[in-house]
Amino acid sequence: MQSNLLNPLNGSSIAAESMSIDNQQNSGSVVETQEMEPTAKQSSNASGNYSRRVSNERPPERVVELLRQTLERHRGDRQLVLLQDFPDPDALSGAWAYQLIAKQYNIQCEIVYAGTLSHQENIALVKLTGLPARRWGIQSLKEKDLSVYQGCVLIDNQGTTCQLLPLVQQAGIPIRVVIDHHSTQNELNAEFTDIRPSTRATATILTQYLQAGLLKLDSSVSDHVKCATALMHGLRSDTNRLMQAQEEDFQAAGYLSRFYDAQLLNAVLQAYRSKRVMDVIERSLTNRIVQNNFSIAGVGYLRYEDRDAIPQAADFLVTEENVHTAVVYGIVHDEDEELEVVIGSLRTSKLTLDPDEFIKEAFGQDSQGRFFGGGRLSAGGFEIPMGFLGGFNENSEYAKIKWEVFDSQIKQKLLRLVNPKDNLLHGE
C-alpha cells in the first residue's frame, strides 16, 4: 500500500497554511484493491495492485465489482470483523452493514472489539438496535479456537487501534477486507482495501455499497431498518451533525432516509451524560492550559469503562471562545487485563490543521514503525502503552509521580508544535 498516494499532506509541515482549503476539499478519494481472478478461493494476495482515484459521489462500478468478487471468492467462510478497541457509531454501523452484505454470500461474520462501550450514545445504539457487536478481552481471545475463521475484516480502522489484530494475525488469519476513511496508518496486506481519507464517514462508504446494489435494503426487514438507523447515526456523528457533510454524505443520508427509524434514532440521541463523564469534563476545565488557541488538558486516571469521557471532554473544550483546537488525555486503567495506556483525543475547528499529521508529528512511532495515533477531518486520537511503568497504583504517592511524569511529557510534545521554534505550526 502506497501511503504517499493516500496522504496529500505527506512530507509537508503540519497544517501548512500554504495548502489551500480548496486543495484539501478536492483531494479526492483513494481506493486500493488487489486484482484477483474471481475463480478459485485464495488465501494469499494475487499479483498486481489496482489503485485509482474516485469521485466523492459513490464508488465506481469497478470498485464495487472487486469487492463483490472478493466476497464471492470466500463464499461460505467465517470471518471476524475487528473494530477499534473503543468503537464509535461510525465503526459499529459500518461493521453491521458489512455483516449484512457478507450474509448475501453465506459468509458468517462476528463483530468484535477488545475495549468497551462507555459513551452513552454508543451503549444506547447497541442496546436499542440489538447491534451484534461483542467484547472480546485479550485473555478470552487467547483461549478461543481461531482456526474456525478463514479471514478477518477491518472496518473504520487499520489495526493501529485494535489490540485484537496482532493475535489474530499470529493465528495465521489473513486480512480479507479493509474499509476506512482515516489517513493511512499501517501497511496492511489485504485482498481488498478501500481507504478514503477525504470521505467524512465510513458509514458513507458502506451506504454507497448498498446504493450500488451489494444489498437491497427492505423497510419490512427489521435488521435492515435498524442498520439503516445505525448508519444514519454513524454518518451524523462523524460529520458533526451533518454540519461538515459533503455532497456524498447528504446523498447517503438521503438514501438512508427511506429506511431508517426516526424515533429509534431520536431515542439513541437522547441518552444523557453520566455523572462520571461530567466529572471528567470538570477536571478538563480545571486542568486546561490555553496557548495559541490550543486548549490542552490532562485528566489523570480513568477507569477503562470511562474512556469515552475523554473525547467528550475534548468536544466540550473546543467550544470555548478563542479556542480552535482541544486535546484531552488521561491514563486509562483496565483492572481485568492489568493494562494501562495513555489515551487522548483531539478536536479542532481549524480547517488548515490536519489532526492526522499533527498527532503523528507529536507522538511519532513505536519500535515497529506503528504510529501511536492518527485522525481525520476535525478529530483525532492517540494511544500510548505505558509498558514497564503500567500498573501498581496501590501506592498513591507513586501513582501521583507517574501521572506527573506522563502529563509533563505529553504536554512537552504537544507544546513543541503549538509553540514551534521551527515554525511547524502557523498561527491564524
UniProtKB/TrEMBL annotation:
This is Bifunctional oligoribonuclease/PAP phosphatase NrnA. It comes from Funiculus sociatus GB2-A5. SUPFAM superfamilies: DHH phosphoesterases. Residues 22-59 are annotated as: Disordered. Residues 22-32, 40-53 have a biased composition (Polar residues). It comes from the Bacteria. Gene3D superfamilies: inorganic pyrophosphatase (n-terminal core) (3.90.1640.10).
